[in-house]
Amino acid sequence: MKLLKFLLLFIFIVVATPVFSQQKVLDSLFVAMKNATTDKEKVTLLNEIASEYIENNPEKMMEYAQKALTLAQKKELRVQEADSWLNIGNANIMMSRYTDALMSFSNSQDILEKLLTENDTINNAEIKSALARAYGSIGIVCSEQNNYAGALEYYFKALKIYQDTKQEDIVSRLYNNIGIVYKTSKEYDKALDYFRKALEVQRKIGDNTSAITITNIGNIYLAQDKNDRALQSYNEALSIFKEHENKRGLGELYNNLGNYYSKVGNTIDAETNYKNALEIFDSVGEKYGASASLAFLGNLYAEQGRSSEALDCLKRSSSMAEEIGVLEQVEDSEKSISQLYEKKGNYKDALLHYKKYTIAKDSINNAENIKNMVREEMNYEMERKAALQKTETEKREAIYKEQDKRHKQQMLFMGVLVLLLFGLAFVVYNRLQLKKTLTLQRDLAEYEQKALHLQMNPHFVFNCLGSISSFIVQNGTDSAIKYLSKFSKLMRLTLEYSKESLIPIDKEIEGLQNYLELEQLRFNQMFDFSITKDPNIEDDMAMPPLLLQPFVENAILHGIVPKKEKGRITVDFALANDKLVCTIIDDGIGFSKSKELKENSVTVHKSMALEITKKRLEVIQAFTSRTSQVDIKELLNENGEPSGTKIILNLPIQYASN
Q1: CB within 10 Å: which end of the chain, N or C, has fewer?
Q2: Long-range CB contacts for residues 320-324, cutoff 8 Å, separation at least 24
Q3: Is the CB of residue 298 less than 8 Å from the CB of residue 339?
Q4: Which residues is 581 bridged to in the sheet?
């Protein structure tokens, strides 16, 4: 666990040097401390000394960080105070005090965010870099407590700053951290996407740690049963490790190669690679990796019926894991040992090791319960902090508004004065009026956009209620209950979206997915559908809610249903020429035939959905000052007959964080 914490921390702090050179660094820092003449210099040196103890002595790190904090607060050195809180938080992580760590990082975050809002800030780049470290450290705390949503939120905040400041080496490592979070959540496609982004940056800047990223990519392929691609990645990583030595990374790679060969049934190569990994880990004194290698070997020997060798490896693995406090490995090894003794008929030793397995399992469960309690406590602290930040923001905004109002009054007075003195009031007045008019026009466009969305909601609900009515008549009570259940879920999503002018594209996809599943039930699986998204679309790209639903509804009602045979609808989200391109395709009767059927129909129904949607597109164009348009095309078959409709919406790229 300590190894994992260090690996996570090292992208946000200066990595500690080896022990033999670390003492030289400390000696030079202590000498500089004695010769320091200013308080700022002393605090900076105390923080640097604290950082040097990150890997092997968190108690010392805490001691010097506290000294730095006390002096920084006394002398009102706010940047150095923020650095002190960061060091205290890192020391708390190494000592598994996660709630204290979160509070420390939050204190640093508060100081740095306030400094960025002040006009007298001397070095914005330095403060932004420190703020990114605070965000990343909070992400680490969340990740350690299995709060993956919180971890991603803060990783993305840190990522944006590092991208803005062009710190590409740290950007690549953050991509790796994000990929690891997605991998832990078993979202393998997203994990693979971010590992590839990390690799792209590493290759661009010539980062030799790209072999670790390539190993991570291989692990994803192995988890997805893409064994050939996994082996290709492992071999590529191996060639880089041989060129740029990294024994810890090479040892992990050999373990992964062993897992690959074990999975494909090549036990000879699996054993060879596990032994290679064990030899490397023993040479560098890495007991965490050595324990895993021994466990892999033990389980491999057990499968081959080599009981004595299996027991020897598993006992060594358990002993080593117990020594360094890796209870998960103790649990796995002791369970395997117990099963081996049971097969041999040695029930006494089987029971003894089963008890050890049970003790380790109970300890893990207790630790997990403690982790859950800490996570709840952390969530409470984060919610409390968010509420305080909101109150502080509202207070600041009120002050800014009052200052702005006072400023406008002063400007008006100056305008009158200038009018009396220089006769230029007409020019000043027109300029002020122009500024006010542009502001009002922008506000008006935003409010009109929200008003049109609110018109869309009752129209959408009216159509759904009509669908429910006809579905109950046609399908009976049980099917209607299932239909109503999906409808209620869709309504919850719709009401949630109604609060926002923009929602992430993933939420729009979720709403369309629910709506199409609802219509599949209604029309007795009369059509299939698919929704695809370009992997280059970022997670926080957004669009107005319920924008595509009217077009999808028309594709079903006026394209597929009149066809009277099974059809298909596809929805695609892509990026092209700085535009978000949304494409809806159906293989129904086509636009012209649908229009002809409407004209010949006795029933008169005026659909407002498309008109409202077109108006919304006009408002989006006015609001963003960028083109927003819809293009409807009729698809023809080989005989030139209508075979469906294609709708293309070109939207300006917007973000949920704007």
Answers
A1: C
A2: 320/287, 320/290, 320/291, 320/294, 321/291, 323/287, 324/2, 324/287, 324/288, 324/291
A3: no
A4: 574, 650
The edge-to-edge listing of strands for the beta sheet with 579-586 is 527-533, 567-576, 579-586, 642-652, 629-636
- At 34 the three-state DSSP class reads helix
For residue 648, list its beta bridge partners.
Answer: 583, 631
Q: Is the dihedral of CA 451, 455, 457, 458 positive or negative?
A: positive
pLDDT interval class at 21 (50, 70, 90): low
Task: Say how many C-beta atoms besides its own lie within 10 A of residue 605's C-beta.
Answer: 6
Cα–Cα distances in angstroms (integers) from residue 525 to residues 41, 135, 518, 531, 550, in the given order: 73, 47, 10, 17, 20
Q: How far apart are CA 50 and CA 66, in angstroms?
A: 9
In whole angstroms, give the CA distance from residue 382 to residue 139: 12
> Which pLDDT score is estimated for 580?
92
Mean pLDDT of the chain: 81
> How far is the C-alpha of 268 from the C-alpha of 270, rounded, in Å?
5
Q: What is the CA radius of gyration of the chain?
A: 32
Helix (H) / strand (E) containing 207: none
Task: Tell me phi and psi for residue 129, to 5 degrees.
Answer: -65, -40
Cβ atoms of residues 162 and 171 within 8 Å: yes
Q: Residue 2 pLDDT > 60, yes or no?
A: no
Both tokens of 151, joined, read 């971890």
In this prediction, residue 385 carries a pLDDT of 60
Nearest to 144 by CA among 351, 331, 2, 310: 2
Could you give the CA distance from residue 470 to residue 522 in angstroms, rounded to a whole number? Answer: 8
Average of per-residue pLDDT across 525-536 = 92
Report the SS3 class of residue 574: strand
What is the reported pLDDT for 1? 41
Q: In what order do the strands lie in the sheet with 654-655?
A: 503-504, 541-543, 654-655
**Mean pLDDT, residues 244-266:** 91
- Using pLDDT thresholds of 50, 70 and 90, give the confidence band for residue 629: confident
Q: Is the pLDDT at 65 greater than 70, yes or no?
A: yes
Are the C-beta atoms of residues 217 and 256 closer than 8 Å to each other? no
Q: Half-sphere exposure of 525 toward its Cβ, with a 13 Å CA cutoff?
A: 1
Residue 150 φ/ψ, nearest 5 degrees: -65, -40
Residue 229 CB neighbour total at 10 angstroms: 14
Distance CA 547, CA 561 (A): 22
Tens digit of pLDDT for each residue in 315-367? Answer: 999 999 888 777 888 889 889 999 988 998 898 988 998 898 898 888 877 76
Residue whose C-alpha is closest to residue 214's, from 186, 185, 243: 243
